[in-house]
């Protein structure tokens, strides 16, 4: 693995440091009067018809792994395409989704940070190593269609991350942990808070020698540990530029190096982002946001011999540059206490291409491929929330225009430079209406009933449209004619709330995902197939296509209680999901989507008093299928995490952490006929320090 910092990140760091230095200059003798700086967007309005699950800062920063995806696992129903986390998974398997509608590399739930979409611009997966939990103040999860407010990608829900606010920041924090397999995990932050603004800087570093992903009984000489090394940093400045207006500026970056546990499976990811947001908090609330994302991804793929004695390189995806650009404006006119309206518009453009060497002969590539394109969306929305006595109305609507442009696939031989393929795909465009209408009625002081209907949508990514790929012996062809996915859903629920001591929400839902994009099995090897070439007898030929639909019905339960020094949490999600493939692949009709469990559950118990902290997290995921044909199953898994912290001095504590304490086997996929596992037991010991 390469361990150098990429040029993009060095440039980012160089721009972040001066910005921070300028922000922390002494405050003038006469600061602006009556200024409240928060770093947040336009304030959320209470009347809602959906259940919101919330992860607070204490939970975000006290997980056994100290990683964002671990905290998200407290909310049942959130899942990556595969069970492995970002230390051992291929990033292409880390698209996130909700409500059992399945997925692939791309996310079907929208992850945002301070209003900025976070998915990879080219492929739609999430780069989890980019986020140090200590930089976050809160995570809010809305299950169900959120496209009316946020546009493409919010099919099954919205995971909204917000940065820490001044009251959550300490002047200096640092923690460092050492764990099994020579692992190091360290995070640090610095902040300066003044009457007219604040600045914060956060950095995180993690590395480890890794574990062998293949289970012991299936390993061969080709199998080895999968090491990782990751770094992230962010700098954020919030300044009041007028009594009712604040300027928020953020720069962030990350590097990620992993291996998948065999020769020729190295992975490199780098990213650098910047955003600027103006927020007005006067009588007319308003927000204006602009952002840019840059990404680089490289990955090598290997084929493993049947007896797992050796690996042979099959693909060198040596560079996948991608860029995301976007802007958003919204305004909230003053209409009184009973009615709140937000109107706005946003635009987002994503572009990128994959550059690959393939068809290896005698360990050398013989062909080169370049594939990619651009997608763009432009939409406008209106959101209405009204309170009429005990009745709350929550309604919004949106219209988006979309464009798919500049699609291309170029392939050539390396020896002669002769062109094999030079295809320019036709540009396409269209419109998508989306919306949500919900009602909530307060039956009594602690009890509210609610119901909602909604429609959401997602535009295919350039990765899905144009990039063929291989995973082991299997090969999947791209499809430039993919249609956008749309989702129609209905839900109903009840909420109990006894102030902040006890909350319970239960929701039943039914979703139908139309034109679901899936990797559809077409034929078994050996043979030569369009878009991918030769597939061996050990592999399958698949093609990305729009299935007729995926239907998912289920229930979600979330509860939280505070009993003195104890905090209790419970989350459960059940999803009965089935595929209707239609004439495209009738053999799939009635089967479950790949990688979708029926049951997910999480329970947490936390105790904190006088600086002592103890917590446990018990998580369960039921059996799921590896493939679209439901021919390979992955067993269920029950894991237990634990954290104990003991104060030894003011602002200093010793902490022990245990991931998967009893080393339960978490099955995540297959490599040929060999079974892969994820998240083996990992024990940590370290210290945390904070300067108040």
TrEMBL record:
The keyword Hydrolase does not apply. It is found in: Cell outer membrane. It holds the Pfam family Plug. Keywords: Cell outer membrane, Membrane, Receptor, Signal, TonB box, Transmembrane, Transmembrane beta strand, Transport. Gene3D superfamilies: TonB-dependent receptor, beta-barrel domain (2.40.170.20), TonB-dependent receptor, plug domain (2.170.130.10). It comes from the Bacteria. Residues 226-661 form the TonB-dependent receptor-like beta-barrel domain. Residues 1-21 form the signal peptide. It is a multi-pass membrane protein. InterPro entries: Beta-barrel_TonB, Beta-barrel_TonB_sf, Plug_dom, Plug_dom_sf, TonB-dep_rcpt-like. Residues 51-158 form the TonB-dependent receptor plug domain. Belongs to the TonB-dependent receptor family. PANTHER family: FERRIC VIBRIOBACTIN RECEPTOR VIUA (PTHR30069:SF37), TONB-DEPENDENT OUTER MEMBRANE RECEPTOR (PTHR30069). This is TonB-dependent receptor. The lineage of its organism: Bacteria, Pseudomonadati, Pseudomonadota, Alphaproteobacteria, Sphingomonadales.
């Amino acid at each position: 693995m390469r361990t150098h910092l990429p040029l993009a990140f060095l440039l980012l760091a160089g721009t972040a440091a001066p910005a921070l230095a300028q922000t922390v200059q002494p405050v003038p003798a006469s600061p602006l009067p009556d200024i409240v700086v928060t770093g947040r967007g336009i304030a959320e309005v209470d009347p809602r018809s959906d259940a919101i699950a919330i992860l607070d800062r204490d939970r975000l920063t006290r997980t056994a792994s100290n990683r964002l995806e671990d905290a998200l696992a407290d909310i049942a129903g959130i899942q990556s395409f595969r069970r492995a986390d970002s230390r051992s998974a291929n990033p292409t398997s880390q698209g996130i989704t909700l409500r059992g509608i399945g997925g692939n590399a791309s996310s079907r739930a929208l992850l945002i940070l301070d209003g900025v979409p976070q998915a990879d611009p080219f492929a739609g997966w999430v780069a989890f190593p980019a986020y140090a939990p200590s930089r976050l103040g809160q995570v809010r999860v809305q299950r169900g269609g959120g496209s009316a407010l946020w546009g493409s990608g919010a099919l099954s829900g919205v995971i909204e991350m917000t940065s820490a606010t001044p009251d959550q920041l300490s002047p200096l924090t640092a923690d460092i942990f050492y764990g099994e397999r020579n692992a190091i995990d360290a995070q640090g932050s610095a902040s300066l808070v003044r009457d007219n603004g604040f600045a914060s800087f956060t950095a995180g570093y993690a590395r480890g020698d890794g574990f062998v992903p293949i289970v012991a009984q299936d390993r061969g000489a080709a199998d080895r540990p999968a090491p990782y090394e990751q770094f992230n940093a962010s700098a954020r400045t919030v300044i009041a530029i007028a009594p009712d207006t604040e300027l928020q500026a953020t720069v962030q970056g990350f590097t990620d190096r992993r291996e998948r546990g065999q020769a020729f499976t190295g992975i490199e990811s780098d990213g650098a982002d910047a955003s600027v947001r103006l927020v007005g908090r006067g009588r007319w609330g308003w927000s204006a946001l602009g952002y840019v994302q840059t990404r680089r991804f490289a990955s090598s793929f290997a084929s493993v011999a049947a007896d797992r004695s050796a690996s042979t390189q099959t693909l060198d995806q040596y560079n996948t540059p991608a860029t995301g650009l976007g802007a958003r404006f919204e305004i909230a006119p003053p209409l009184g206490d009973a009615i709140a309206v937000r109107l706005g518009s946003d635009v987002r453009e994503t572009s990128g291409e994959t550059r690959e060497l393939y068809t290896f002969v005698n360990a050398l590539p013989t062909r080169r491929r370049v594939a990619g394109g651009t997608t763009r969306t432009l939409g406008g929305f209106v959101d209405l929330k009204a309170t009429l006595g005990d009745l709350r109305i929550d309604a919004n609507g949106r219209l988006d225009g979309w464009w798919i442009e500049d699609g291309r696939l170029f392939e050539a031989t390396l020896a002669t430079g002769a062109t094999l393929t030079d295809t320019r795909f036709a540009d396409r465009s269209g419109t998508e209406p989306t919306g949500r209408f919900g009602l909530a009625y307060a039956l009594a002081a602690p009890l509210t009933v609610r119901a909602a209907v909604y429609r959401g949508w997602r535009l295919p990514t350039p990765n899905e449209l144009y990039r063929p790929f291989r995973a082991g012996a299997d090969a999947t062809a791209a499809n430039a004619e993919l249609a956008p996915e749309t989702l129609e859903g209905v839900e109903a629920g009840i909420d109990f709330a006894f102030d902040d001591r006890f909350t319970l929400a239960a929701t039943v839902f039914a979703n139908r995902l139309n034109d679901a994009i899936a990797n559809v099995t077409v034929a078994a090897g050996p043979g030569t197939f369009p878009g991918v070439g030769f597939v061996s007898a050990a592999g399958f030929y698949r093609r990305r296509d729009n299935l007729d639909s995926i239907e998912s019905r289920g229930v979600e339960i979330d509860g939280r209680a505070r009993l003195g020094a104890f905090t209790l949490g419970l989350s459960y999600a059940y999803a009965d999901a089935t595929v209707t493939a239609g004439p495209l692949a009738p053999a799939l009709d009635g089967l479950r989507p790949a990688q979708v469990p029926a049951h997910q559950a999480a329970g947490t118990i936390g105790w904190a008093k006088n600086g002592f902290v103890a917590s446990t997290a018990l998580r369960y995921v039921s059996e799921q299928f590896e493939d679209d044909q439901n021919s390979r199953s992955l067993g269920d898994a029950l894991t237990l995490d634990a954290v104990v912290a003991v104060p030894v001095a003011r602002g200093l504590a010793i902490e022990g952490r245990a991931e998967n304490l009893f080393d339960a086997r978490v099955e995540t996929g297959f490599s040929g006929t060999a079974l892969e596992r994820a998240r083996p037991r990992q024990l940590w010991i370290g210290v945390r320090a904070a300067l108040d």
